[in-house]
Amino acid sequence: MKTLINRAIMASLLYWLASVPFVAYAESPKTVEATDSLLKMLKVEAVGSKVLQDSLRVPARIELNQQRVARIGASVTGRVTEINAVLGQKVKKGERLALLNSTELGQAQSDYLKAISQVNLRQLAVERARRLFQSDVIAEAELLDREGILAEAEIDLRTAEDQLRVMGMSEADLKQLASQRRIHSFSPVIAGIAGTVIARDITLGQVVQPADALYTVADLSQVWLSAEVPELQAEWVHGGDQADAEIPALPDQTVHGRIIYVSDVVNPETRTITVRMEVANPDRDLKPQMLANLLIRKTAEKVLIINDGAVVREDDRDYVFIEKTPKTFELRAVQLAEAEGHNRPVVSGLKPGERIVVDGAFHLNNERLRKELE
User: Fold this and answer.
1) Per-residue pLDDT for 15 more than 50?
2) 41 located within any domain
3) How many beta carbons lie within 10 A of that of residue 299, not counting itself?
4) Are strands 242-247 and 250-262 parallel, antiparallel or unpaired?
5) Alpha carbon distance 214, 209 (integer Å)
6) 110 — alpha (psi -120 to 50), left (phi > 0) or beta?
7) Residue 76 lies in a domain
8) What number of helices (H) and strands (E) belong to the chain?
9) Which of 32, 31, 190 is nearest to 97 (CA)?
């Protein structure tokens, strides 16, 4: 009996469902018609464009311009007898920084003077042999032998000259030594460039070698600013581009310079490339090892811009309302770049001149959602 009743109930239910018309649920409406009161709350403007210039900020540091640094040492082995320059002192090119007493230099000068004497003696011997040969007193072979000895003496003289040049003696010093024939075993330590003494490793009485670095002189009127740029932003940086820098120690000063070096190799440990900017430093305000921020800007380009007040965020997407008629507006999906202040650059979805709701889009969207619920 129960089975017959259940079957009757199921048959009745199926008959009722068949009699109910099928309802299709439509998508959310994309077009909304604003009332007069709502129109007063809306502000509509045409989409405009603006020139934007993106920038990349990376940590950096001030460094010495290695093309304007000289590490100065002794040209001979000797003992320090005078110190003429101290840390922080500004020196000129060719200025004496210290003085050494070198027995090695004295011996080289002695060898040079002996070589001069030998050349003079051999020249006299050759001239005498030529006269004797012309008088048929000696044979030609003896003349040639004496000329060969003179050539050897001249080679020894040139070797002695080169040795003294290596030891720091100039042409004027060599001429003075040859004319006065007086050994001067003191060797000066000379500044190779004009600049500031930034390092000194020398004391009185110290015995120094040519391999020792006694002074470091740097021209600080121009410095480098070095930074490590992530490889993903490598396309931002090109040699010759202009760039700016911010120095936390100099908060009121923006530094301008030119990119002079972009590494061709990525550091495998940090995944960065080394970038170097050349910066003028006439007032010496920029100190080596100061921390900084390098600002690299892309080439300026013209893009469409909308105010962030025009953007409606829904379902993790950005939308704007397009004016179709003075009272009708259509919701359209757009792709936007990162905000620049209150502006949003448009990547796609809009054309120049299209009129959109720039103020009141929130109220218009509420009206659209209300009608959707109805």
Assistant:
1) no
2) yes
3) 9
4) antiparallel
5) 10
6) alpha
7) no
8) 6, 23
9) 190
Q: Six-digit token pair at 258?
A: 């030119």
Domain extent for 354:
31-52+301-373
Sign, CA dihedral 26-27-33-39, equals positive
Residue among 279, 340, 302 at smallest CA distance from 64: 279
**Rounded Cα–Cα distance for residues 363 and 34 (Å):** 10
For 320-348, the DSSP string reads EEEESSSSEEEEEEEEE---BTTEEEEEE
Of 127, 162, 184, at which residue does a domain stop? 184
By the 8 A CB rule, do 312 and 345 touch? no
Which residue matches tokens 């099928």?
A: 22
pLDDT digits (tens, 9 = 90+) for 266-315: 999 999 999 999 999 998 999 999 999 998 876 666 778 888 888 888 88
Residue 10 forms part of a structural domain: no
**Distance from C-alpha of 239 to C-alpha of 234, rounded to nearest angstrom:** 11
Helix (H, G, I), strand (E, B) or coil at 175: helix
Domain at 171, CATH number: 1.10.287
pLDDT of amino acid 224: 95
Average pLDDT, the chain: 85
Q: Is the pTM of this model over 0.90?
A: no
Token pair 């259509």 is found at: 330
Tokens, residue 49: 């464009």
